[in-house]
Amino acid sequence: MTTPGKLVIKRIIDASPEEIFDAWLNPESLRDWMVPGPWKYTEAIVDSRVSGKFWIVMKNDEREFEHTGEYKILDRPKKLAFTWISKATGMNPTLVTIELIQKGKKTELTLTHEGLSDEARESHEQGWTDIVEKLAKHFSKS
Question: Is the pTM of this model over 0.85?
Fold first, then answer.
């Protein structure tokens, strides 16, 4: 059952919780995998502390799509949460939470995005699915 305005994506990734946690806060890492579907590359600036801000711009040959937010929880290596603001959220802050649970030599990642409109939920579900897949591939080539 789906909760209105909320999406949840789970994925087992072949990396430790520490590696995955750090990947969310490293601008070089974000540039490698924070690129959904047809977008080609990403620019990222990160101030990785609670109340620190981030700026992420996803680009293709024709458009740029800017995202900003603020880190709310940084509990390495188990959980991080940040606001997520873009045109797709109507420039309203929504909340993204990443939870990491070690499963042997792998990690179960649960991404929860709350506060989305129905339209934004649909587009973000595909985008986050693509991004989590690329995050998993980022570690498979390491």
Answer: yes
